[in-house]
């Protein structure tokens, strides 16, 4: 005669087996994703770390050089401008790219007519391939014939040099980036806004709350989590700015738009120093991981 | 997470093999398996298989056909050699995939390289030493100074197949419109300035003189101008910057004058190589620095009306920046593959009357014949004479378009890229170039001094 404890012990593996069997399809799908992640993300990440401490020409055996690659990158005169520009770009891109989509989402949410049409218009830039979107702005920014200076001229305002000036080049890239990412941000905010129960607004209105009070006391608290998620995602994404300086300015004029990832690209592909490029990539990865850790911590606190 | 770090992609590029992209195997390009497949070889030589790159793309049907024809003829001539794969990826030298292919064992046995990258590949040991095999090359002794670029410590690491000195490319039609004589192009920088001013005066969209300012091509053209004025980018021993001189200052002052005082350079920045070519091909730009190959490039790739363009000598030139390209061999190759690779380079690019120097065939295939490049051999050497005679006899383009460059460049010494860290130096020199083209108040002395400090620091760190 078996004891209850022995019964439980016998039942547990059977239960686990059943559970595994039931979820076999899910595990199968998961395997595919895991293999893809392992092959295309984690394996290269491990390689990146290894290569940043090595010197190799891919012909002779690699040599471990300690922190030499980091020293090379650190002593590069473009190192400081690259980090400053990246930080500045991130800050400006957050100010524009975070606030503008939220405001547009609020307006769209309030609209009673043509909402779907306007939503499509706002999302349209996302459908363009990034390179096409960026190159479109190259024409808009042309100091002689560009759309923007034509508009300024229409209002009798003097034209700007846009990409050709150290004082306007970086903000010009921010405008491109904001325009390109506007659609996705707006849609996410709009989806979050539409989950807010209308009773809350009705109650606030009955209490005499105006538009700004409703936004402050209902909208923002109700969308706090999504705002936080978007903030962190934007920091991580904008710190990796590459395509805009690569296609529009080549890091110039006078290093005014050189970014960390653009400098990494230079090391890896133009200077033939892949190891230094990886060292710089590792530095950026650590910074981004820090932000991601903060995000995870904050989002956990908010969900508990 | 929305996006992945580019660094992961870089590492991925190493980890993954660049398989098959833009390539076609030799069988699909009309070549036939040879003795190597049977394990025996004619003439007692062991069978060997190699791969090559820079096959002209399908869009360039005429040149591709000649290349495929040459592969077949080469294998017939050397039955023990099989060209198992010919890659047609463009550009032929692609730094973004080079190391990934080398790491993954996918780099072709014989690979194309342009001059700015030669020094770096030699320095990093990414090209095979060809010295023991050069004696087998029939035309080796006839090479001009372009071969020096492929030498390091007395050893030869590659073979130039295309070479030319810098000049001044101009649009004859635009010259005529501006009231300038297209048959007497500028010979001094003062004349360039005056011509540019007149061209810009034609009205909206006209640019007198176009110049690069970013993505390393700004520094590259600064170097070309500096060499022309007799200056150097680095000292002969390669340990220090040498451009903070009156010659370096003159390069920037000339541009500043044209950009701001004369307003003859337009306001658009040209930050990569195709940008200026596109602008020149569009037909409203008067002049740019460029070698004779620019004319063919404008015709083939940038929609330029070929007969409108001409190239003349670089104004007041004391030395000419040596541009061009060549072939190196994969350092992982066996000695037999190196020998076979050299034979391919010799057959396809270096033998007068064969391969790409078969001007009779080129003329029949409606390819341009008569341009004064590749300029590989000394004019008095047997190979140099043979190439020039064949070229002259089969010319199908107007030699006058190149005459100014040919005559004006005679006797002017060629000067090579500034060492193995040329690209890093060009990046630094982009800054003064972009500064004078974007800031009216650019302080040239300060810009040169800053760039000098940066280059010295770079060279010191490289040891």
Write the layout of secondary structure elements.
The complex is a heterodimer of chains A (304) and B (463).
Chain A: H1 4-22, H2 24-52, E1 54-55, E2 63-64, H3 68-75, H4 79-110, H5 115-127, H6 130-140, H7 147-154, H8 169-193, H9 198-206, H10 211-222, H11 224-238, H12 243-249, H13 260-270, H14 274-303
Antiparallel strand pairs in A: 1-2
Helix pairs in contact in A: 2-14, 3-14, 4-8, 4-11, 4-13, 5-8, 6-12, 8-11, 8-12, 11-14, 13-14
Chain B: H1 6-15, E1 23-25, E2 48-52, H2 61-77, E3 81-87, H3 95-103, E4 110-114, H4 115-123, E5 151-152, E6 155-156, E7 158-165, E8 167-171, H5 172-177, H6 189-200, E9 207-210, H7 217-228, H8 246-261, H9 273-281, E10 285-290, H10 293-301, E11 309-313, E12 320-329, H11 335-350, H12 359-364, H13 382-393, H14 400-409, E13 414-415, H15 422-438, H16 444-462
How would you describe the overall organization of this protein?
The complex is a heterodimer of chains A (about 300) and B (about 475). Chain A contains 14 helices and 2 strands. Chain A has helices spanning about 5-20, 25-50, 70-75, 80-110, 115-125, 130-140, 145-155, 170-195, 200-205, 210-220, 225-240, 245-250, 260-270, 275-304, and strands at about 55, 65. The longest helix of chain A is centred in the N-terminal third of the chain and has 32 residues, at about 80-110. Chain B is an alpha/beta fold. Chain B contains 16 helices and 13 strands. Chain B has helices spanning about 5-15, 60-75, 95-105, 115-125, 170-175, 190-200, 215-230, 245-260, 275-280, 295-300, 335-350, 360-365, 380-395, 400-410, 420-440, 445-460; strands at about 25, 50, 80-85, 110-115, 150, 155, 160-165, 165-170, 205-210, 285-290, 310-315, 320-330, 415. In chain B, the strands form 4 sheets. In chain B, strands 4, 7, 12 and 13 form a 4-stranded mixed β-sheet that branches. Chain B has a 4-stranded mixed β-sheet with strand order 9-10-8-11. In chain B, strands 1-3-2 form a 3-stranded mixed β-sheet. In chain B, about 55% of the residues are buried. Residues about 1-40 of chain B have low confidence and may be disordered. Classes of the chains: A mainly alpha (about 300), B alpha/beta (about 475). At the A-B interface, helix 2, helix 11, helix 13 and helix 14 of A face helix 1, helix 3, helix 4, helix 15 and helix 16 of B. Chain B: InterPro entries: Bact_solute-bd_prot1 (IPR050490), SBP (IPR006059). Chain B: It comes from Streptosporangium lutulentum. Chain B: This is Multiple sugar transport system substrate-binding protein.
């Amino acid at each position: 005669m078996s004891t209850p404890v022995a019964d439980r012990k016998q039942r547990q593996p059977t239960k686990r087996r059943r559970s595994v069997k039931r979820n076999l399809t899910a595990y199968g799908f998961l395997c595919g994703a895991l293999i893809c992640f392992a092959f295309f993300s984690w394996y290269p990440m491990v390689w990146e770390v290894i290569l940043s401490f090595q010197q190799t020409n891919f012909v002779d055996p690699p040599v471990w050089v300690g922190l030499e690659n980091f020293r090379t990158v650190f002593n590069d005169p473009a190192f400081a401008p690259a980090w400053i520009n990246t930080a500045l770009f991130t800050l400006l891109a957050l100010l524009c790219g975070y606030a503008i989509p939220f405001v547009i989402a609020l307006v769209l949410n309030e609209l009673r007519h043509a909402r779907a049409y306007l939503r499509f218009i706002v999302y349209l830039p996302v459908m363009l391939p990034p390179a096409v979107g960026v190159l479109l702005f190259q024409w808009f920014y042309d100091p002689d014939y560009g759309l923007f200076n034509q508009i300024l001229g229409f209002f009798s305002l003097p034209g700007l040099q846009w990409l050709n000036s150290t004082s306007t080049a970086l903000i010009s890239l921010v405008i491109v980036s904001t325009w390109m990412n506007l659609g996705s941000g707006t849609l996410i905010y709009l989806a979050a806004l539409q989950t807010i129960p209308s009773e809350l607004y009705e109650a606030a209105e009955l209490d005499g709350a105006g538009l700004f009070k409703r936004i402050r006391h209902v909208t923002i608290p109700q969308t706090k989590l999504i705002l936080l998620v978007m903030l962190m995602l934007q920091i991580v994404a904008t710190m990796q700015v590459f395509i805009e300086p690569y296609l529009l300015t080549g890091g110039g004029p006078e290093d005014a738009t050189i970014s960390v990832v653009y400098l990494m690209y230079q090391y890896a592909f133009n200077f033939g120093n892949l190891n230094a490029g990886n060292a710089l990539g590792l530095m950026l990865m650590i910074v981004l991981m820090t932000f991601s850790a903060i995000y995870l911590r904050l989002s956990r606190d908010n969900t508990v | 997470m929305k996006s992945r770090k580019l660094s992961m992609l870089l590492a991925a590029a190493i980890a993954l093999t660049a398989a098959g992209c833009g390539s076609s195997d030799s069988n699909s390009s009309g070549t036939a398996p040879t003795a190597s497949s049977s394990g025996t070889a004619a003439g007692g030589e062991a069978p060997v298989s190699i791969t090559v790159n820079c096959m002209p793309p399908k869009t360039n049907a005429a040149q591709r056909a000649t290349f495929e024809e040459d592969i077949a003829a080469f294998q017939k001539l050397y039955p023990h050699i099989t060209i198992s794969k010919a890659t047609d990826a463009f550009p032929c030298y692609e730094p973004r995939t080079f190391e990934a292919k080398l790491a993954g064992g996918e780099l072709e046995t014989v690979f194309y390289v342009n001059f700015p990258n030669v020094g770096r590949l030699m320095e990093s040991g990414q090209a095979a030493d060809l010295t023991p095999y050069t004696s087998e090359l029939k035309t080796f002794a006839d090479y001009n100074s372009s071969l020096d670029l492929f030498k390091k410590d007395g050893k030869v690491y590659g073979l130039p197949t295309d070479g030319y000195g810098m000049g001044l490319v101009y649009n004859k039609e635009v010259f005529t419109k501006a009231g300038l004589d297209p048959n007497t192009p500028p010979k001094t920088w003062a004349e360039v300035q005056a011509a540019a001013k007149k061209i810009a005066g034609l009205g909206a969209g006209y640019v007198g003189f176009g110049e690069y300012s970013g993505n390393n091509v700004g520094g590259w053209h600064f170097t070309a101008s500096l060499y022309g004025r007799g200056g150097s980018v680095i000292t002969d021993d390669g340990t220090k910057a040498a451009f903070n001189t009156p010659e370096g200052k003159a390069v920037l002052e000339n541009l500043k004058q044209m950009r701001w005082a004369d307003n003859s350079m337009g306001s658009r920045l040209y930050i990569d190589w195709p940008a200026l070519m596109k602008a020149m091909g569009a037909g409203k730009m008067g002049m740019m620095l460029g070698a004779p190959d620019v004319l063919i490039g404008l015709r083939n790739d940038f929609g330029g009306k070929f007969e409108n363009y001409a190239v003349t000598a670089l104004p007041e030139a004391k030395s000419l920046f040596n541009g061009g390209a060549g072939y190196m061999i994969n350092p992982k190759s066996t000695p037999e593959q190196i020998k076979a690779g050299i034979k391919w380079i010799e057959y396809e690019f270096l033998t007068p009357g064969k391969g790409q120097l078969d001007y009779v065939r080129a003329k029949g295939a409606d390819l341009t014949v008569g341009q004064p490049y590749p300029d590989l051999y000394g004019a008095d050497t047997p190979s140099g004479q043979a190439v020039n005679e064949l070229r002259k006899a089969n010319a199908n383009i107007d030699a006058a378009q190149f005459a100014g460059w040919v005559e004006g460049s005679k006797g002017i010494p060629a000067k090579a890229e500034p060492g193995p860290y040329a690209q890093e130096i060009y990046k630094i020199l982009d800054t003064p170039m972009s500064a004078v083209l974007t800031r009216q108040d650019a302080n040239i002395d300060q810009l040169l001094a800053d760039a000098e400090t940066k280059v010295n620091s770079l060279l010191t760190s490289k040891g």
